[in-house]
Amino acid sequence: GAGVSQSPRYKVAKRGQDVALRCDPISGHVSLFWYQQALGQGPEFLTYFQNEAQLDKSGLPSDRFFAERPEGSVSTLKIQRTQQEDSAVYLCASRTSGAHNEQFFGPGTRLTVL
Amino acid sequence: DAKTTQPPSMDCAEGRAANLPCNHSTISGNEYVYWYRQIHSQGPQYIIHGLKNNETNEMASLIITEDRKSSTLILPHATLRDTAVYYCIVRVATGNTPLVFGKGTRLSVIA
């Protein structure tokens, strides 16, 4: 079946522009996570949704970052007034309910801020 | 911060076993050891997890020491497609805790 998809795969933005990154999780997956991966580093947690509820946003680096999942399926990560330090790969993952079910990751969106 | 320590890189000859070590000396009794890998330009992929017993699946084997302070991921017959960054993660079994990644081990499988 289809995995987690993300779009666009690559995004180039000028500093100060707003961007929106989309995640389509696996159908029926209740939980959705966003991670940020800087070059040469492991992914770092940004935020987590269970259905449409954003239960944890402790990893969002600033109030320029905003995520939503209004209908409990597709999620959008929005970054306002992008800065060069926002350049990274943004990964989305989803999982079913249950203690040990692994997270399934999408291919990521590589954001470059010039 | 990640609670694990892994070597930054390793090489392995194609067809040989790849043994990837991980130290997690501060692991708690209710924490599991998970392994994920990330092939270039892809998202991380789950491999295996365990609590205290050795585990095996179609991808790999996981050996956890009796004191649970370290573990080894074994790829029994490495192929070029196994070239990736391998992440060892400790976490509680509550499913919705986020994964805390370190820098992982970059495994290069050489023909």
Q: Concise description?
A:
The complex is a heterodimer of chains A (114) and B (111). With 114 residues, chain A is mainly β.
Radius of gyration over C-alpha positions of chain B, nearest whole angstrom: 13 Å
> How far apart, in Å, are the first and last alpha carbons of chain B?
35 Å
Oligomeric grouping of the chains: heterodimer
Q: Tell me about the biggest sheet of chain B?
A: 5 strands, mixed
Class computed from helices, strands and strand pairing of chain A: mainly beta
How do the helices and strands follow one another from N- to C-terminus of chain A? EEEEEEEEEEE
Task: Please provide a written account of the structure.
The complex is a heterodimer of chains A (114) and B (111). Chain A is an all-beta fold. Chain A has no helices and 11 strands. In chain A, the strands form 2 sheets. In chain A, strands 2, 4, 5, 6, 9, 10 and 11 form a 7-stranded mixed beta sheet that branches. The model of chain A has no long low-confidence stretch (mean pLDDT 95). Chain B is mainly beta and 111 residues long. Chain B has no helices and 9 strands. In chain B, the strands form 2 sheets. Chain B has a 5-stranded mixed beta sheet with strand order 1-9-8-3-4, with no helix packed on it. In chain B, strands 2-7-6-5 form a 4-stranded antiparallel beta sheet, with no helix packed on it. The model of chain B has no long low-confidence stretch (mean pLDDT 94). Classes of the chains: A mainly beta (114), B mainly beta (111).
Record keyword descriptors for this entry.
A: four-stranded antiparallel sheet; 11 strands; B: 111 residues
Indicate the topology:
The complex is a heterodimer of chains A (114) and B (111).
Chain A: E1 5-7, E2 10-13, E3 19-24, E4 31-37, E5 44-50, E6 53-56, E7 65-68, E8 75-79, E9 88-95, E10 104-105, E11 109-113
Parallel strand pairs in A: 2-11
Antiparallel strand pairs in A: 1-3, 3-8, 4-5, 4-9, 5-6, 7-8, 9-10, 9-11
Chain B: E1 9-13, E2 18-23, E3 31-38, E4 45-50, E5 55-56, E6 61-64, E7 70-75, E8 84-92, E9 105-110
Parallel strand pairs in B: 1-9
Antiparallel strand pairs in B: 2-7, 3-4, 3-8, 5-6, 6-7, 8-9
